[in-house]
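Hello,

I think I submitted the pyridoxal-5'-phosphate job twice by accident. Can you confirm which output corresponds to this input? Input:
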Amino acid sequence: MAYNSWYECVRGCGRRYSIFEVVYRCEDCGGLLDVAHDLEPLQARSGAEWRALFEARTRTTEWPYGSGVWGKMEWVAPQIAPKNVVSMYEGHSNLFRARALGVKLGVPDLWVKLCGNSHTGSFKDLGMTVLVSAVKQMIAEGAPIKAVACASTGDTSAALAAYAASAGIPAIVLLPKGKVSIEQLIQPISNGAKVLSLDTDFDGCMRIVQQLTQEPEIYLANSMNSLRMEGQKTVGIEIIQQLDWQVPDWIVIPSGNLGNISALGKGLLMMKELGLIKRLPRLVAAQAAQAAPLYNSYQRGFDALEPVQAGKTLASAIQIGDPVSYERAVKALQAFDGVVEQATEDELANAAVQADQTGLYACPHTGVALAALEKLRAKGVIRESERVVVISTAHGLKFSRFKVDYHNRALAEVAERYANPPLELPADYETVRAAIG
Ligand SMILES: *Cc1c(COP(=O)(O)O)cnc(C)c1O
Ligand SMILES: [Zn+2]
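Support: Only one job matched these inputs. Its output is below.
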């Protein structure tokens, strides 16, 4: 039996579209579109058989299964022909027991999933490989697509530029001027994308890219386009695989536009439906207090999204006031008995550097997740005996300015509790010896 998937309207109006159609919202009701899979052919394999197949492909080289995403391609995008896959063997990022940090946070069974140990330094690679592969196949089949475009807080554009360059497809990226790190700015420039730095915030860039992609020649690569979520959903599957198929009690994830938490939930639900796991973890969406519309809505029992003007935050990749995947995220949080927590600038910065002092190199978003964990532990929501996985969404090396400013005690609104500035000394033995103490 052939595997199959299609777009389905999230509002339940019943309308379906091919995943190779250029469509981002339901033409009948305006709802977002999710990719749905025909479960029947997938059920022909038992949970144990799927686990064995995924294990057998892990870290092999056979195209395209060596990728953490394409090793699970029947669940992700079964209609994409292997010859159209654009992959740099993303995924399989390490999950490790952060013992020293766990002890500090009062959760000794703490694990960290380092999604930043990836081709462009963030989890965005997991989704972009799927989107760009679909575009490659669409072009091969005669679609008039001339370029792919996205608005970005820095990591989406880096991933899009790299995968598009690899596929030979032109990329256009819209960035909020001065609101992405220097490392994130130089990534798409290096990969040959057309980089447009706009005098606005992410939400402003998003509005313009939606207008640009009304033209069928320019294909939208933002997470409104749910092809990316199909790749990103492998993160939860991979975490559980790495835990020898044991389900943790909690997964904590930094959240902005809310695509990633929706994707995480989607992959985990699929595992349960197809018999790979028997229970679900609880999820924590961690937001920066400066940009916390989901947290605000959670406080009101998820009554409705009230978009906010996102304030400046060190966690710049989640500086988003009007999250596209709000409805999807609420569904996921409800299905997983989820919790939303927020972290101030002071909390997220200190949490990131505290983690560094146990050997990590945490980005500010990972700081948001760790601070949320610390707060939920203090409130007793998360218990000492529980197994917690924190998703580290990007590599700390993308945020050098944050680290430098922290250790120079130059951050507004942060009391730098762990600052470790270098000592500048004359090249004199006695002075050096005295400074070491
Ligand atoms: C994109 C991104 C996020 C947020 O993911 P959403 O899907 O927008 O919620 C978090 N951290 C980093 C580093 C990111 O690049
Ligand atoms: Zn609809």
